[in-house]
Design brief:
Chain A is mainly beta and about 170 residues long. Chain B has one domain. The chains are: A mainly beta (about 170), B mainly beta (about 270). At the A-B interface, β5 and α2 of A face β2 of B.
Chain lengths: ~170, ~270
């Protein structure tokens, strides 16, 4: 009886990797002193060497409609993301898209078990964060990294207008 | 002599589809769009400067709008004013819309009582030309002025060539231009690649700089050419040609012209 149970359990475990590589990202939405403030639309994705989207990690946009239209109307303002992925994506995407976030630091955690990263082949990638704000500007930041990481590594990029500090920590 | 020139100039100004001096164009409010029920609005005008309205409107009767599934779409809320026509397009389908003004007709010059005159019309109306006209020269004129708008993911059903006159195929997609990147095009005449067609490409906002900064390029042996966009903006692209392949027996020559408005986005 016990032997059968052990076999059944190891069968389950065999479907996910024995190690848990993690990708921890922190995106800072800067506090801005403007007369008319709107939370930015932000897209976080992983790009391969071919500069195409290998995985969409997080997209923050207005989930509701207002008198100006539905929130999806302004997704093309995330120019690079729209061109490389957004325009062929059916939003919302479970676990990826969500509402806009306020000023502050926002932690995002992913692992090789997360659906978005599970399919990621080993290689060199770039984390890209694009932010655009209504009646504001647009900024794009990139941090290169390797996946999965042989050893723990980290990276950072500092925005100057629509993004604050973006950090990346990869753990094997 | 001066009076004839003034008359000719007045006639040229009255022709909404003037051959060379003026620039005809359609200017969409945007070319990349998303949302639940997106609409765009388009200006249609003939002018000297890009993209400023200072001459005559393009007439709405010439509009041909093709939806992403290849069907025809009607413009809405059309109006024609002194310098421009304006109309809305509801982009109900996802994909690429082709919005064009197409003029396909005959153009004639002749002399009557020592005066040089012009006429525009169709084959059916050739009878309008006076019997005592001398030095009659009739040519066929096919002109296409167009732009492209994509709702969501681009497709190319609406971009299929009609096979008549000059048409441009964007070898990636007409709504995929970005500053600093090269775009490749193939030009067709009657559906076949045409070599040696000269293109003039001008970025908008001409009022705020000291030179046209036009880009000149010709199609190669395969009918192709490449443009690397120096800056983001709306670009006007024009080419034209003449041949004797008129489809109408009364016309000995054929004049073809093509204009496209392409949006180049920043990186």
């Amino acid at each position: 009886m016990r032997v059968t149970l052990t076999i059944a359990l190891s069968g389950l475990l065999a479907t996910s990797p024995a190690y848990a590589a993690t990708l921890d990202i922190n995106v800072e939405v800067p506090k801005l002193n403007v007369a008319e403030y709107h939370r930015p639309y932000v897209a976080v994705w992983v790009e391969g060497a071919d500069q195409q989207v290998a995985a969409n990690l997080s997209v923050w946009y207005q989930q509701t409609s207002n008198s100006e239209g539905h929130g999806t109307k302004w997704l093309p303002d995330l120019r690079q993301w729209w061109r490389k992925s957004g325009r062929t994506l059916q939003v919302p995407v479970d676990g990826v898209t969500g509402p806009t976030r306020p000023a502050g630091k926002h932690a995002l955690s992913f692992s090789n078990r997360t659906p978005e990263l599970r399919q990621l082949a080993p290689g060199n990638y770039t984390l890209v964060v694009e932010a655009v704000r209504e009646v504001g500007g647009r900024e794009l930041l990139k941090i290169p990294f390797s996946w999965p990481a042989g050893a723990a590594s980290s990276g950072r990029a500092q925005g100057s207008s629509e993004l604050g500090l973006v950090t990346l920590a990869v753990k094997p | 002599m001066k009076r004839m020139l003034v008359l000719a100039a007045a006639l040229a100004a009255a022709l909404p589809f003037a051959a060379s001096a003026h620039k005809a164009w359609l200017l969409p409010s945007q070319t990349t769009i998303a949302g639940n029920d997106p609409w765009i609005t388009v200006d249609a005008a003939v002018s000297n400067d890009l993209f400023y309205f200072n001459h005559v409107p393009i007439r709405l009767e010439s509009l041909q709008i093709t939806a992403p599934d290849g069907t025809a779409v009607q413009a809405q809320n059309g109006a024609t004013g002194k310098f421009r026509s304006v109309f809305d397009v509801q982009l109900s389908q996802q994909g690429t819309y082709r919005i064009a003004s197409v003029n396909d007709g005959l153009f004639a010059t002749y002399e009557q009582n020592g005066e040089r005159k012009r006429w525009r019309g169709t084959v059916e109306r050739l009878g309008e030309l006076p019997r005592d006209a001398t030095n009659l020269q009739v040519s066929q004129s096919i002109g296409r002025v167009e732009t492209f708008v994509t709702h969501g993911a681009p497709n190319d059903t609406a971009l299929a060539p009609t096979g008549r006159g000059i048409e441009l195929i964007a070898l990636s997609h007409p709504n995929d231009q970005f500053a600093g990147e090269p775009s490749r095009f193939r030009v067709l005449v009657d559906g076949k690649p045409a070599a040696g067609l000269e293109f003039e490409i001008v970025r908008g906002a001409t009022r705020y700089r000291n030179a046209q900064e036009e880009i000149k390029v010709s199609s190669d042996a395969k009918g192709e050419f490449s443009v690397t966009w120096p800056q983001a903006g709306m670009y006007w692209l024009e080419t034209g040609s003449e041949d004797d392949r008129s489809s109408v027996k009364q016309a000995s020559k054929r004049r073809l012209s093509y204009v496209a408005t392409l949006e180049v986005l920043p990186q």
